[in-house]
Write the structure tokens for this entry.
Amino acid sequence: MSDTHHHTHSSADAEIRAKALESLLIEKGLISTDLIDEVVRQYEEDIGPLNGARVVARAWTDPDYREWLLRDGTQAIADMGYHGREGSKIVVLENTASVHNLVVCTLCSCYPWPVLGLPPNWYKSYAYRARAVREPRKVLSEFGLILSEDIEVRVWDSNSEVRYLVLPEQPAGTETLSSEQLIALVSRDSMIGVAHANGPV
Amino acid sequence: MNSIHDMGGMHGFGAIEPEQDEPVFHHRWQGRVYAMAMYTPVPVPGGFRYMIEKMSARTYLTSSYYEKWLHARTQGMLESGYIQAAELAEKIAWFTANPDAPVPERHDAEATRKALSRKAPAAVAGDSNQTPLFDIGRQVRARNIHPPAHTRLPRYVRGRCCTIDAHLGDWPVDDTPPAGQPHAIEPLYRVRFEARELWGDDAEANNALYIDMWQSYLEPL
């Protein structure tokens, strides 16, 4: 798996060290088994890019919400019930016919958890962190997104506590789709900025 | 600190390799490390990220993402005195000899509910006693500084000129403060660097970088 690309330590070794730490934290009463279980469950089942897709679909269909989202992303997103860790300030970046936004964290892996969940491995990879700021068009082309030179590419290096979510353009021909159908078009990658939203199926 | 984690602009890491239908956690231990890192109610001395940045470059590069988290959480517990090195070594030896042995369990539904309902610590800690020095649209320069501890000022922008794009309010400076002092609170700016300013003739066309800068990262031209 790609998780193992960068390292030579064995995963089994890490598993043993993780078990040793968990045992000590449990024995010392510093954390409980059910808290660990529930945190894992939440990130595996509840806190993921579907949240962000719901935000985007609402912005596509509700001009007042779109205006609010772009003016105060944190509050407009909290209105959908999404807030918490790595979400104390979320700024939403609007992709348009003339501006394309792309988000990276060169120093580590900052990412808007409440709306996108935990980041994929490629976002955390050394290659993405190193290259996105220096050659974003080349990076985008490797994701299959070739942008003409009259579109300005804005790269956002999330280095402070502010987190960024890209609002992709609504694909043409989707104006009559239902909210559920629109949500299905909004990929995680389109909200990081390495893809467009999908066209109608 | 100028360590390997500060990667913006580097060559040599190869291609980006997205994985189709990637799971949130590839191995069970990774999810458990994530939860222990975020929900153990003991701060990591000096900060979680700084603990990772202090890893040697070789160890950093050869450790997977959640191995770094495991390191920061474990080292933090050792340095804060909650766990002793000898008992940790003993546990590792025991699980090495008994790799399929279960981890002991402790259940506390009430504490779990409380921990999950607790709001994440607010990042905004109040007002700065500094007034914003730079208006929107002003040209400024990122300072060419090389702090030996944690900083959010990446090397690839140091010494480069940018334009103030927005005021983001007052925020605690994430950099390691001087010994014994709290984190300062300063105005935070969003700034824009033109790609040519950062990468010269190698810059791509029609490209700009946006990044956040605390006031002390910036100097007037």
Notes: The beta strands of chain B are 139-142, 161-172, 185-194, 207-214, 218-220. DSSP finds seven helices and five strands in chain B. Helices of chain B lie at 28-39, 48-53, 57-62, 65-79, 85-97, 109-117, 195-199. The domain at 28-117 of chain B is CATH 1.10.472.20 (Cyclin A; domain 1).
